[in-house]
Write a structure and sequence with these properties.
CATH architecture of the largest domain in chain B: 3-Layer(aba) Sandwich
Largest sheet of chain A: 6 strands, antiparallel
Number of strands of chain B: 12
CATH superfamily of the largest domain in chain B: P-loop containing nucleotide triphosphate hydrolases
Oligomer: heterodimer
Number of helices of chain A: 2
Number of helices of chain B: 31
CATH class of the largest domain in chain B: Alpha Beta
CATH architecture of chain A: Roll
Shape of chain A: globular
Shape of chain B: elongated
Helix content of chain B: 55-70%
Radius of gyration of chain B: 31 Å
Helix content of chain A: 10-25%
Distance between the termini of chain A: 19 Å
CATH class of chain A: Mainly Beta
Largest sheet of chain B: 7 strands, mixed
């Protein structure tokens, strides 16, 4: 279980999959890898087409005044994500060195 | 009158070659389009939908002239709405009035090649001849992105030309590639495409549907797999279903059921698998993706998206924009009116007095004035929107406003159009194009005229000045007039929010507005693009909306000037004679009395006109609101524009040249009595009248623009209907409710 992500088997994530979290809970400034998206809605499918797919490394950048949406940086672009959408996203938090 | 000229050079023809230009939003597609075609382009709509179609022309090095069509900017080829289906239809040659494009220029943002290639490879799967324009290489290099154009070209099997659309670098090379690409008739280079080798369970599903399509003759062998995948990922349910033949829909549904898959699942699988495929392409193209943060963007966002300063700055920018369309457009509008007045005067001298002169001056010229008077506001608003959009700030505004607007069920991008509607609904409604969802956009359009626009101000001013002690102070710094005025604005906002929420839950029921938003890096706006867009907006407004406004002005003029009941002028003539021959009067009082007689005659003639008779006819309907027949006439006449109410009221009360600040008009209205001797303009009637004007759609220009923006008469008619009912109910509640609690 430790050497390959059991959720999707294709993302290539090899970290500690027991320490999974949901993206909406991560504080500003944290880094994570997207592991799986549960039951993607129409809106999330669009985010996926914009590059937010399992295996992507994400930095939580900043939140809007009323706490939602918040902006995330992926390689190549910055996207806005609503907190309720981010609840569907299972992530593995990364430490700064990873 | 070059604005009205329809030149043939911009119409696509069957003989010229057609090139399409496509790409992600923010990829610089529009800049490249403008760079290639310059001013040689024409804006219109795709047939049947309200998606803007831009077609231009440019010349190849050989001297051959080709057509260029701009496809909507999108992240994916999958169609989830009729609007998104357009790219598909254009590419396979099924868009009305366009032939199959010879080749497609795909613009890629070199800073994010991977995501831009997602869309490009979807196009390539369709078997179209692609020419990749790798845009903004300069910025990409700064940010640590490197890509080998030749290797990328080899990996995806089509020419790749690095360009900088902003300054025209690489355009020559792009042109010669277009020329070469168009001339080669061979197949697209034989490099394995995504569609040729799909992972399971996509492979089985796509292959089965592809065979089904081939057997039913709905697709050719070369295209069947790509067509099948497109069908599977494009929405097949709901009322926004894309327009494909029932046979295709049935086939696709059967295959999906058999494999126990849904459209969404297929899309999720396709997306992940395609990105996997792109990973290999990136390796083959020797791409280095370091992703250094864009310094300027980072620094600006720290302030502009700050949790406290962000909204403050946004509201300040909005206040500035609003102030400018609200008051800075005023001199330009006054100048327009001055010019129209001068033209009327000049033309008036050339035509002999009579019906024809009135038609020309009060119908045609006044109508053109009614059109042109909107231009300053439209140009100002679209200047600001253009700059904010091009710099990348508009996406931030949507980001900041999303939560607040979503609470009402509106898109974050609806904020700017709605705010602008407080100045004038016309530019506001034109600005709703940035809203992606069709229903979300319709809701915004339908409530925009509820925002209290500046044309209502003269009505408020007159009524408040007439029925209230407007300058009496309350609570020290405030005055009654100010408070009543604020009440009207509050009513307007409350009504707008409630109606939007209601429509969103009923007739335009749809999920909460989606948010899939990219926050692009900040860029300097290009003056060229901003100005070209302004010219396009102005042209569109004058040609598409102007004609309707012009026609409506002429009809209203006819209604107010043709007499239904003939007026007997003899008593007035006799009265005039009496005044003229009365030697005991001095000159001044003679003039005053003559003017009074003129006013009385004009009042009677207006009462006898078609519109006047209609006003009398509908009086019973408006009576429960406390309105008399004179107000009814004013309401009918004000359909030309709300402020006309003031001058119409002046005419039917026999006051010459009365405007909203005229003391004579106010005094006359104050003195006006019903037949039983009671005051007509009581504070309660005034309040009901203002509530009516807040809620009613008394503006044919708004109707015309909604017709143009929704592409049918259905929505404008619905809008007038619901607003009229709302206005009647609102005024009824105020008047009857007020009477119940003993007000007058």
């Amino acid at each position: 279980m430790k050497d390959k992500c059991f959720q999707c088997l294709s993302c290539g994530y090899t970290g500690d999959v027991e320490a999974l979290c949901r993206m909406d809970l991560l504080p500003v400034g944290s880094r994570c890898q997207l592991i799986e998206i549960e039951d993607p809605s129409e809106n999330i499918l669009r985010l996926m087409e914009m590059g937010l797919i399992p295996g992507t490394n994400v930095v939580i950048e900043r939140t809007a005044p009323l706490n939602s949406p918040f902006s995330i940086r992926l390689p190549g672009c910055t996207l806005a994500v609503r907190r309720e959408d981010a609840r569907h996203m299972v992530v593995a938090p990364l430490s700064d060195t990873e | 009158m070059s604005l009205f000229a329809r030149s043939n050079i911009n119409t696509p023809t069957q003989t010229r070659r057609l090139i399409a230009i496509a790409g992600n939003p923010n990829s610089g597609k529009t800049t490249l389009f403008n760079r290639l075609t310059g001013a040689r382009h024409k804006v219109g709509n795709y047939p049947g939908v309200t998606v803007e179609r831009k077609i231009g022309q440019f010349t190849l090095p050989s001297g051959e002239s080709v057509d260029l069509v701009d496809l909507p900017g999108t992240y994916s080829f999958a169609a989830r709405s009729p609007e998104e289906q357009i790219s598909h239809d254009v590419l396979i040659g099924e868009s009305q009035g366009l032939k199959t494009p010879d080749s497609v220029i795909v613009v890629l943002d070199a800073s994010n090649v991977r995501r831009n290639l997602y869309f490009a490879t979807q196009l390539r799967d369709m078997g179209v001849r692609l020419i990749v324009a790798l845009n903004m290489m300069d910025i990409a290099r700064e940010r640590g992105f490197h890509i080998d154009a030749d290797k990328l070209s080899a990996a995806i099997g089509c020419p790749v030309v690095p360009v900088v659309a902003r300054n025209g670098e690489g355009i020559d090379k792009l042109l010669s590639e277009i020329e070469r690409g168009s001339r080669t008739d061979g197949p697209v280079a034989q490099v394995p495409r995504f569609i040729d080798d799909l992972p399971e369970p996509l492979e089985g599903t796509v292959q089965e549907l592809a065979e089904g399509l081939e057997q039913s003759g709905l697709s050719t062998k070369e295209n069947s797999r790509a067509e099948a995948l497109w069908l599977l990922v494009s929405t097949l349910d709901g009322d926004e279903a894309i327009k494909v033949s029932p046979t295709q829909t049935a086939l696709a549904k059967r295959v999906l059921n058999k494999h126990k898959l849904t459209t969404r699942q297929v899309r999720a699988i396709e997306t992940s698998a395609r990105y996997q495929y792109l990973r290999n392409l990136m390796v083959l193209s020797a791409a280095v993706e370091q992703d250094l943060p864009h310094r300027v963007t980072e620094a600006l966002d720290k302030v502009l998206l700050h949790r406290l300063f962000g909204p403050i700055i946004f509201l300040s920018i909005m206040a500035f924009v609003f102030q400018s369309i609200f008051s800075w457009a005023e001199p330009a509008m006054a100048a327009t009116e001055g010019i129209v007045g001068w033209i009327s005067g000049t033309v008036g001298q050339m035509i002999p007095e009579g019906m024809f002169r009135n038609l020309v001056i009060d119908g045609a010229i006044a109508g053109m004035g009614n059109v042109i008077v909107f231009l300053p506001q439209i140009l100002l608003l679209f200047f600001f929107i253009g700059v904010l959009e091009d710099t990348g700030y508009m996406a931030r505004a949507a980001f900041l406003m999303d939560r607040v607007m979503a609470k009402v069920g509106l898109d974050g991008r609806a904020f700017v159009p709605l705010l602008s509607s407080f100045a004038c609904a016309i530019p506001g409604i034109m600005a709703t194009r940035t809203i992606a969802g069709r229903k979300d956009r319709l809701v915004t359009i339908l409530v925009a005229p509820l925002m209290s626009c500046s044309a209502r101000l003269p009505v408020y001013t007159l009524v408040i000045g007439t029925v209230f002690a407007a300058n009496q102070s309350v609570l020290g710094v405030f005055t009654i007039g100010g408070m009543v005025l604020m009440g009207m604005y509050l009513l307007s906002v409350t009504a707008g929010i409630s109606v939007a929420a209601l429509f969103k839950k009923t007739i335009l029921k749809s999920p909460p507005p989606p948010l899939y938003l990219e926050l692009p890096t900040y860029k300097l706006p290009s003056a060229r693009s901003v100005i070209m867009n302004l010219v396009d907006r102005a042209k569109l407004f004058i040609m598409r909306v102007g004609t309707v406004i012009l026609a409506a002005t002429v009809i209203l003029w006819a209604m107010m000037s043709f007499e239904w009941v003939p007026t007997d002028a003899t008593p007035f003539e006799q009265a005039r004679q009496a005044v003229m021959t009365n030697t005991t009067l001095d000159n001044d009082s003679q003039t005053a009395m003559l003017e009074q007689i003129d006013g009385q005659e004009a009042a009677l003639r207006t009462e006898h006109s078609v519109g006047g008779q209609m006003g009398k006819f509908i009086e019973p309907v408006l009576k429960p609101l406390g309105f008399d027949w004179r107000m009814s006439i004013g309401i009918i006449a004000s359909f030309a524009a709300r402020e006309v109410f003031v001058s119409s009221l002046a005419v039917v009360h026999g006051v010459k040249n009365g405007d909203e600040n005229s003391p004579t008009l106010r005094e006359t209205l104050k003195e006006a009595r019903h037949d039983d001797g009671s005051t007509i303009y009581t504070p309660l009637v005034g309040l009901a009248l203002m509530v009516f004007f807040v809620l009613a759609c008394q503006c044919m220009s708004t109707v015309a623009i909604v017709k143009r923006e929704t592409n049918s008469w259905r929505w404008p008619i619905f809008m007038v209907a619901y607003m009229t009912v709302l206005a009647w109910l609102g005024a009824f509640a105020v008047y009857q409710g007020g009477k119940l609690i003993g007000l007058s």
